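Service request form, structural biology core

Requester: graduate student, group of Dr. S.
Request type: structure prediction, single chain
Budget code: on file
Notes: please return the result as structure tokens.

Sequence provided:
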Amino acid sequence: MSADLVWAIVKNNNSFLVKRQNVQFSAEPANLMNVNSFKYSGIANYKTVSILPAARGIRVVTRKANKEQSPKKSANSVVIAKTRRQTSKSVANLIARGNKYRPDLRAAAVARASAILATQRPVKVQAKREAKGVRATKA
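Core staff response, request fulfilled:
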């Protein structure tokens, strides 16, 4: 089935659609921007990109268009556990530069990878300062 036909069927009514205050969002696993549009749709497009958190780093899952009839074989998964800068460069190379998989999704994929890495950063514990002066002696 063509991608345009699938999009025409699912664009206004699917289980991932979230309608809030005149804006439509999508909760699809392969939708990088969570926006209900054909460009970012993980249901309608054959070539999709998912960026998920891994134990260490991120997992980039791409789907092979020629294996769409067998879903298990169509997924290509890569775990990237590098520094922030090297991770964004690797994601950009996987998506757009090297094999030109989906160059239009490069910026969205790098932004999603950066956001996931920011959530994985450990929280710094700030030492509580000692009270000084007159108020310290009162308490």
